[in-house]
Here is the input.
Amino acid sequence: MNYSIFIYETAEDFAKRSDPARSEAHFGGWMKYFEGLRAAGIMRGGSGLMPPDTATTVKLRSGQRLVEDGPYADTKEQLGGFFMIEVADLDAALDWAAKCPAAATGVLEIRPNLPPMKQD
Here is the structure.
């Protein structure tokens, strides 16, 4: 079954990405996790995201496009990235999520993916 692991990180986690004194240790943990997913043969995709202050939201109301700077959710943790994995069941997805470096400081949301849309 295919699952997405959405990674919600704290402002401190995002700060570690751009601080040269801390980024090597920060990304080292992520590379170890990524390599574990890849070695297990379950990685199907994913990406880290730029910090929340680079986000732009868009919605359509009464036919008008409304654009705002900043992330959609105004919370302590913000979406920092995601992984798509293929594992046997939810328990296996939860096991992999618990190994993620962000599990210690942020929040991970695990969701089953819909089947791919059929293309003609």
